[in-house]
Amino acid sequence: MFEALLVRRASVHSPITQSTSKLCANLSLQLCTWYNTAAAASKEEKQKKTEKGRWLILPPVSSSIDAVSVVKALSSRPSDLKGETTNTTTSTTALKWVLRCCPHLPRSLVQKLFRLRQVRRESCDSMSSLDIGNHAQEHRLKRVTAKEVMNLGDRIFLPITVQELPSETQEHYCNEDEISYICSLELYKDPAIIAVNKPHGMPVQGGIGIKKSLDELAATYLRYDYSEPPRLVHRLDRDSSGILVMGRTQTSATILHSIFREKTFGASINDNDKMILQRRYWALVIGTPKRANGLISAPLGKVVLDDGKSERMTVDTNGNAISSQHAVTKYQVMKSSAHGYTWLELCPLTGRKHQLRVHCAEVLGTPIVGDYKYGWQAHRKWKPLSWSNPQKNKKLPRSKESPFGLDSEGGSIAEKQPHLHLHCRQMIFPNIALALQHLQSSSNCDLSELESLNLVAPLPPHMQRSWGILCF
């Protein structure tokens, strides 16, 4: 258009102006060329931004803590590690790195992304300066499998659409009394762990028919300034009470998982003094064991009842039950009552489902008070224990009504239906926060010399009243 206009004007004006017109025509051609180039560059830049926006880029892979090696270093004596080099760091897989960087994403979704081959990897060896074009970056990306081992500095690319997914974790809103009650359960907190005194009747994990569970409430009200919610590393039965430990970060939770796993798989009758984790439960049982102390070693297996509608654990000496597992428990009689009750201290050396309840009921022949699943026969003849001293009733602690529908007033041996009298009283395990702090400063530090944490949880109200009635 510019050329046609200039040519027309050149035909009208004098020869003197023709040279000027030619000059203008040349300038116009240069202007058109620059305009087309700029437009193409702008279009290419927009395309680059669009292509770049296709991916969610995770942080470069860094060294991860080898939980098994850390636990070994924590549990071993200095003499056992002479001449050995304990490597506390380990490589990680693509799946583990995605779960570590994106704890909000459901594991099932991440695994599906890998199955559909929608995850990419950029090797640190192929990375170059920032002026490389987006097309070159796309060429460097390669599909990665879930179990593929990552190198330090590698980056993982996820589809940008994962940012639009709603969070799987739902926040549970509570009133002021409920929030205050949740915070009052806290026993201990440091940068690595948080421990609470779980009340009787509160489920640890959510499920069918459970509106509010302890892990969900902790994710909302015990997270504090952390971006990650506390993670469960072990379980307590709904009807039992006591110390429940959660990891505040994925690293600390992984180490705690290994500690509890080491307790279960490393249990040995002849080597109990080397246990890295010690747990002491207090229980009130019906009857008195024949011996004042001892070690129970009886395998447990699962039995299915009522055409698969229910199940229970039982001592499996013949190997007839489903998934029979080795189970070991130390016990000590603390005090006996003339009314036929005994205060036991139980130390599980393995962590099997309902281990303490089955060992007490089926091995010792002394079911735990309030255990209607494994001690139902003893409770068929149950009679509430009347107060022998009415004046002492006034001195016994009576707690206020608890939120979440928990019954904190009843449940003692003076009631027709007592609560389960099983409480995780004490837990001793390594100081994970201190261990991680030492590992950051030096990888060759002696973790076995670090002080352990010693947590103690007060008895729940119903057990306090029963102890008071029996003058324990």
TrEMBL record:
InterPro entries: PsdUridine_synth_cat_dom_sf (IPR020103), PsdUridine_synth_RsuA/RluA (IPR006145), RluA_PseudoU_synthase (IPR050188). One of its GO terms (biological process) is enzyme-directed rRNA pseudouridine synthesis. One of its GO terms (molecular function) is pseudouridine synthase activity. It is found in: Mitochondrion. Its main location: mitochondrion. Keywords: Isomerase, Mitochondrion. Residues 193-361 form the Pseudouridine synthase RsuA/RluA-like domain. PANTHER family: 21S RRNA PSEUDOURIDINE(2819) SYNTHASE (PTHR21600:SF81), MITOCHONDRIAL RNA PSEUDOURIDINE SYNTHASE (PTHR21600). Belongs to the pseudouridine synthase RluA family. This is RNA pseudouridine synthase 4, mitochondrial-like isoform X1. It comes from Nelumbo nucifera (Sacred lotus). The lineage of its organism: Eukaryota, Viridiplantae, Streptophyta, Embryophyta, Tracheophyta.
